[in-house]
Amino acid sequence: MRNPRGKDQGPRKRNPAPEETYALAEQCTRQRDKGLLLHDIAEHEGKSHTYVGNLIRCYKDLHPSILSEWKNGNPLATMTRLNDIRGYLPARQLQYWELSRLEEARDQEGAQRLRQRIHEDIERDARRAYEARGV
Asked: Can you give the pTM of this predicted structure?
């Protein structure tokens, strides 16, 4: 395979299956909990410290039902999607996970309704936070 500049990039890497990334995340988290440094874990696994850090954060931060989907190999559980979702509070994680399901099923009407509900929830939460500040 060649990049746009014509240089050989070698064979294209396949994305690991969700259950493989889950097992690696579980293993890396156990090592980190035992006190190993992120750099050492990454070096041992042959991965970048950024990737290993994302695995650990996803494993620790995701809602239990999303973790279960990841562990069971749901194809929606890509590292990109999980990493995007993990930064939200648990209720919002579930909303975005459901949105992913609707989009994958090509349920555009259902996805649009859920996007609207998420938008309204975010606005409501922001308004409440603003009012709580007493401004």
From this structure: 0.81
